[in-house]
Specification:
2 copies of one chain form a homodimer. By secondary structure, chain A is mainly alpha-helical. Chain A has a single domain (14-143), classed as Arc Repressor Mutant, subunit A, CATH 1.10.10. Chain A is built from 6 helices and 3 strands. Chain A has helices at residues 4-29, 35-47, 52-59, 63-75, 97-117, 123-143; strands at residues 50-51, 79-83, 91-95. The two termini of chain A are 30 Å apart. At the A-B interface, α1, α2, α5 and α6 of A face α1, α2, α5 and α6 of B. Chain A binds a DNA duplex through α1 and α4.
DNA sequence: AATCCACGTTGTACTATACAACTACCTCTA
DNA sequence: TAGAGGTAGTTGTATAGTACAACGTGGATT
């Protein structure tokens, strides 16, 4: 059984390796929707629409970044804006039919990739791994 | 106990969330050395020097990307090049004294951050989490 | 020697990102 | 109710990271 420090070291190394690779892998697998666009579109779908500001706050992105990402998604016809009648400043963002479709495709294909990677894991291990990841991310959010 | 699919779904979500955040977090914590530069420099340190081509192959980066990263590290005085006397085309890259110093600092501070995030984990959980991450990354390397 | 291959650099282009300045609009207060 | 101040979003500008293609130089093979 390795000492605590060794495990932490491994976790650090593996998380770093993963982070380094993730975007490129995602981009290779889904040229039509980057990791960030995917995430934003998924959030819109999940929340049944929200504001650019909410996306920025939720994902710790600058509002200008979100503005441009959304502009790109709109240009692709994946997102539409509906001005809030209550407050003319606000645009509520929604996936379009087409956007929802693409999102569904990418989600399915991502899900399949994960299933393949995890195919030979048994159910207990999967469950524990999922729990650990949630715990780790929660701690990271808490501590910055 | 969640079903297999739910665990996979959680793993996917959490890995994605982590990947999205990682670079920005690293950049905030260590403005002096990006996640990529850090990784490259650490590899040089670890391997006691290697070629740009080796870095590119190991990290799946284009050689031009590595070339520019190394150029930047050299400009900062963190890396030096030694032309291989056996083959004039080859430059063996090494961290400088200064580079090794900075690397050590960043490593220490990253390690501390991980220790903080994982402070309230018990030893068994840490060990299992480390094992799972290694296994996951190995599978990802295998399957692309 | 001629050809081919390996190593690295440079030109070019694109994406993601931040910060700052700006416009338009809302809200609150004197 | 007019002005002050705050909020939502866009645009200008700059930077980092990345890839691909074209190239130069030097080693290896035939």
């Amino acid at each position: 059984m390795p000492h605590r420090d060794e495990s932490v070291e491994t976790i650090q190394q593996e998380m770093t390796a993963f982070a380094r690779r993730a975007r490129a892998t995602a981009a290779r697998m889904h040229p039509e929707l980057s990791l960030v666009s995917y995430t934003l579109l998924a959030h819109l779908d999940d929340q049944q629409g929200c504001r650019a500001t909410d996306l920025a706050a939720h994902y710790l992105l600058d509002k200008s970044t979100v503005s441009r990402q959304i502009a790109a998604l709109e240009k692709l016809g994946f997102v539409e804006r509906r001005v809030d009648p209550e407050d003319q400043r606000v645009q509520v963002l929604h996936p379009t039919e087409k956007g929802a479709q693409v999102l569904a495709n990418v989600t399915a294909s991502r899900r399949q990739a994960f299933h393949e990677r995890l195919a030979d894991w048994d159910e207990d291990d999967l469950n524990r791994f999922a729990t650990y990841l949630r715990r780790y991310n929660a701690a990271q959010e808490r501590l910055g």
